[in-house]
Amino acid sequence: MFVIVRMPDGSSHRLEALEGWRVMEVIRDWGLPIKAECGGACACATCHVWVDAKWLPTLTAPTHEELEMLDGAFHVDERSRLCCQIIMSPELDGLELELAPESLADAPVARLAVGG
Fold first, then answer.
1. Do residues 97 and 50 make contact, with C-beta atoms less than 8 angstroms apart?
2. Do 33 and 104 form a contact (C-beta atoms < 8 A)?
3. Any alpha helices (H) in 56-112, and if so which ranges?
4. pLDDT score, position 107
5. Tell me: the pLDDT tens digits for 38-58?
6. How far from each other are the two terminal CA atoms of the chain, in whole angstroms?
7. Where are the domains positioned within the chain?
8. Strand residues in the chain grouped as ranges (E)
9. Residues of 62-77 as b/e, b for ≥16 C-beta within 10 angstroms?
10. What is the band of 63 on the pLDDT scale with cuts at 50, 70, 90?
């Protein structure tokens, strides 16, 4: 399975993902600079992403807690999700999303995923 992550600078990365993993974990573990300060506990909004509109019907609805956290994020729209709340499944193979600029960590990209 793969996730396609577009960065604020326009670059795009195809990341291999495992079923049951949070999309935030996939992004972080492949070395892309995502803040994800709470580590996936839905206690911040530092993993804010915009999901490509064609994928929105495939996702489970956001919880009340996720919507509350998104209230504190910038540039929220109908595509906004916290990627710590998106769990990879076969139905999400090929999921496309964009990392919101405020979720970008200052760390350089250590390694990038390439997939087949």
1. yes
2. yes
3. 64-70
4. 46
5. 999 999 999 999 999 999 999
6. 10
7. 2-103
8. 2-6, 12-16, 48-51, 80-82, 95-99
9. beeebeebbeebeebe
10. very high
CA distance 57 to 60: 8
> Does an H or E element contain 96, and which?
strand 95-99
Output the pTM of the full model.
Answer: 0.88
Is a pLDDT exceeding 70 seen at residue 79?
Answer: yes
Q: Which two tokens stand for residue 49?
A: 């992403």
Q: What are the structure tokens assigned to 25, written together? A: 């974990």
8 A C-beta contact, residue 87 and residue 21: yes
Q: Tokens in use for 86?
A: 């998106």
Please tell me what DSSP assigns to residue 25: H
Residues in the chain: 116
Spell out the CATH class of 2-103.
alpha beta
